[in-house]
Amino acid sequence: MSIYSRRQITAYYRELIKTSPRVHAIQETASHFGHSAATVEEVITQSAVTAYLHALGLDGAPAVAVLKAAADAFGLTTDALLAAIQEQHEAMEA
């Protein structure tokens, strides 16, 4: 990762996703920060997972509502976010 933090990359992407298609927002973010689209997508997905898990611990919102809100905020499908959560969970158990 470059001198740019994951937080900076995520914030830039989240501004773009408000008005641009997901693929364009990823490509523009990658170009802006000098990373590959795959790297930016990984950062975004991990940020979505973190946001989802953080929200589950902070409020009593139903998990499904929190999952949908986190997925929507990062331009992911709920299935993609669930898969990333499962992947992260498995990595933490290993």
Structure description:
The chain has 94 residues and is mainly alpha-helical. The chain has helices spanning 6-17, 22-33, 37-58, 63-73, 78-93. The longest helix has 22 residues, at 37-58. The radius of gyration is 13 Å and the shape is globular.
What's the rounded overall pLDDT mean?
A: 85
Uncertain residue segments:
none
- Shape descriptor reads globular
Termini Cα gap: 24 Å
Radius of gyration: 13 Å
Q: Output the helix-strand order.
A: HHHHH
Give the biggest beta sheet. none
Beta-strand segment tally? 0
Share of helical residues: over 70%
Strand-residue proportion:
under 5%
DSSP helical segment count: 5
Which structural class do the helices and strands define? mainly alpha
Features:
single chain, 94 residues, mainly alpha, 0% strand, globular
Quick structural gist:
The chain is an all-alpha fold. Helix content is 78%, strand content 0%.
Write the layout of secondary structure elements.
Elements: H1 6-17, H2 22-33, H3 37-58, H4 63-73, H5 78-93
